[in-house]
Structure formats: C-alpha cells, structure tokens
Amino acid sequence: MTGKTFAEKQLSGKSGRDVHAGDYVEAEIDVAMAHDITGPLAFQTFDEVTGSDGALFAPDRTVFTIDHHAPADGVQAANNHNALREFAAEHGAHQYDVGDGICHQVLVEEGHVGPGDLVVGADSHSTTYGGLGAFGTGVGSTDLGTAMATGDLWFRVPETRRFEVEGDLPEAVYAKDLVLKFIGDVGFAGCTYMAAEYAGSTVAALPLHERFVLANMAIEMGGKAGIVEPDERTARYLEAQTGRAPSTDVDDPALHADPDAEYVDVHTYRAEEIAPQVSTPSNPENAVDVGKVEGTEIDQLFVGTCTNGRFEDMQVVADVLEGEEIAPNVRMVVVPASGAVYQQMLETGVLTTFVDAGAVVQSAGCGPCAGYHQGVLGDSDVCLATANRNFPGREGSMKSSVYLASPATVGASALYGEITDPRRVDTSRYDDVALAKGARS
C-alpha cells in the first residue's frame, strides 16, 4: 500500500479508520461556520434534527459571522442578521457582527482554526483554512445544520492533485498570480472533488497571508480542499495572532503527506518563469500573462475579499498609490477583510493613502464581491478586482465584465486607468515588498 496524502491522513484521523481516496467516511468535525446568508437555512435544519430544545455539538467551536449583507442593505438582510444574533445567543455560539469582517478572515484572526482541524463552513471559500494546514471545506446549509447538531458529517475521501513550485518569485509576482496560473492550466473543473496540495520551496517561503490565497482559490478549480502543510512559519503566525502556540505540533507526521503518497498528477513550475496573471471575463480559468491584456480600459478597481483583503494586500496597493491619484476615468472601491485590517490601515496611514488617492474605503465585508452592495457594477462596466470569481453578474450587472488580478496589478492599473503590468511601476518605494515575498510571518 502506498503512502497517504494530507487529505487521506486527515480523514483517516477524523474518522478513526484507515482510509484512502475514494472511500466514504463519517468524520468528526472540529469547527462549524455559517454567515448571514447561509445561517438561517442551517438553523431550520438544526431545529428539524434536534427539536425545539436541541443543543449545538460544541458551542465553543461553532462560529457565525455577519459579513455578506453587512451593513444590512434591506429589511430581509436585517432580519437575517437578527436571526444569527438570536440563535448564537440562545445556543452560546461565537457570533461576529457587522464590521467585524469576512468569516474566513475572522476565524483565522481570532484563533478558531488550527493545523489539523476539520472545518466545515456554509460558504464555498471555506477551503481558505487549508492555508494553516487544516482541512477546510464548504458545505451546503442543510449539511451544516446537521453537522452543528451531530458533530460529524459524511465525506468521500478526495483524490489529490499536487502543485509544486520551486525557486524565487520575480518582482511583482504573488500567490494570486500562482493560483491563477494553476487554475488556467487545469481548468475551472480540474480539481472537482479533489484536494489541491501546494508545495515546493516557493510555497514554503510564502507568508501565511499568501498561503491563504492559494487555499482560498482551490474551489475555483473545483477543489474540495486546498492545502499548504503547516511548518514553523505557521506556528509563529498563530502565536502572533492568538498569543499561544498551536495545539497540534506542526511537525506531526499526521499533518504532512508521505513521500510515496499517490496523486492524480503533479504539476511542476519554476517560480522565475511566472509572470503577473490576469483572468479575463467571465471565468477564473481564463488566466493569461498580463501583457496579453495590458491596455484594456477599466471603469472600477476593487481591492478586498477573502482572497486579497488582508492588510498586506492593502499595503501593496497603498505603496503604489502613495503620493499619487487614481486615474480620472476610474473609481476604486476598497473593502478590508476584517475590522482588524481596517484598524491597522488607520494606524499605519494606509487608509489615508487610499482616501488621498481618490478611493472609497468601506467597512469590512463581502458586499461588492458577491454583487450585493457597496459598489456593484452597472451595464457595460469593466472592473479589475482582487476577487476570486468573475462569472457573469458576479459583481453586479450581467452585462458587466470582471478581470481578476493580484493587488500589485490592481494598484498599478489604478494609476493609468487601464490594465497595467505592475513591473512597469517603480517598485523601489514598496516599503513591504520583503514582507510580501515571505521575509516575515
């Protein structure tokens, strides 16, 4: 018998069985999450399963966030918010309110997830937690409601596709460029119900905020999970965030694939050969080198989301905009991933840089990414975004067009009002380029 992948090890441990890809297991979950869109339906299922006096499987490991329609943009949204508040208070769960931030960022910042955890979230980008070495996956509201009651869930153990990158990333190339390249190579359905393992010296050198990008967008190729194995950088990040060491040893063999693990295939890359990437409308798999679309006029720039709304992403854009103004033909919408990111932007002057450049900075949340509010697109609008999806109507009108790119590419494009290769911009003034390349955790 061959060795095991990360996914096989995790679901073996959580099910108490020796399992391999293709097996079906009932696995114990560690953390359950829902937000203001998916929570109300999950609550209905929970009540049907448990009855009127039902209890959560683990209130201290159940988390609800108000982040999608936040602040409320109508009565229905406000009622959904109240439903989350009331359910959380009644059952003793963790609940984060308007402005606290996007679920995936908040769970990481607040220490709810750690290496080796099995996390189910009623949101497709729950794969994000794989950046910490957890098995994070999205489930439907009905599955989430059942899991909240029972503490376990059925899974098919996924096959794994591995992406290995070696070498040093070039100037102005980031994890977003890597994952867009991967998606472009295997296609939007290339990892359907598979785990995506990211490895190699390049990935090992990435700071955690960049690892989250890789894990987050595994779902954009159909992935059940996206995994970066934990290491000492992971441990340092968690200690900095939570003030305590992770509960699981990051060197535990259970958190690392075996050398003889069996993969569907292994995609290998040289980092120095990767150029800044842009995904053209209307699918993330339409990834091309930025030079192929350079000069495309844009109407709006969007900086934010659970993919690239962290402080380091904001810093990259702000460093480009420092002392400059955005081009007169465009508007820029900035939405930090959490209230903590917003506060850090205030304290460091990054928020002032955005405002001085002509951007609109809003409270933390998901609004524009999901096309709800805070800056949706109209007919014929063209947007360049740090988001994860660019399907028709994703950020507003079905007649709008959305391009996806890294914060560096969005920042450079803001100066010219058209898609611009970030390597054209003077990067000598990038204060935190070392951080973005992995010098710090």
UniProtKB/TrEMBL annotation:
Pfam families: Aconitase
CDD domains for this protein: IPMI
Cofactor(s) listed in the protein's UniProt record: [4Fe-4S] cluster
Statement: the UniProt record of this protein carries the keyword Translocase: no
Catalysed reactions, semicolon-separated: (2R,3S)-3-isopropylmalate = (2S)-2-isopropylmalate
InterPro entries, alphabetized: Acnase/IPM_dHydase_lsu_aba_1/3, Acoase/IPM_deHydtase_lsu_aba, Aconitase_4Fe-4S_dom, HAcnase/IPMdehydase_lsu_prok, Homoacnase/IPMdehydase_lsu, IPM_dehydratase_rel_enz, IPMI_cat
Cofactor note: Binds 1 [4Fe-4S] cluster per subunit.
Superkingdom classification of source: Archaea
Domain Aconitase/3-isopropylmalate dehydratase large subunit alpha/beta/alpha, residue spans: 25-292
Keywords for this protein: 4Fe-4S, Amino-acid biosynthesis, Branched-chain amino acid biosynthesis, Iron, Iron-sulfur, Leucine biosynthesis, Lyase, Metal-binding
EC number from the UniProt entry: 4.2.1.33
MF annotations from Gene Ontology: 3-isopropylmalate dehydratase activity; 4 iron, 4 sulfur cluster binding; metal ion binding
Any one GO biological process: L-leucine biosynthetic process
Subunit composition and interactions: Heterodimer of LeuC and LeuD.
Family: Belongs to the aconitase/IPM isomerase family. LeuC type 2 subfamily.
Protein name, entry field: 3-isopropylmalate dehydratase large subunit
Organism for this UniProt entry: Halomarina ordinaria
Native organism taxonomy: Archaea, Methanobacteriati, Methanobacteriota, Stenosarchaea group, Halobacteria
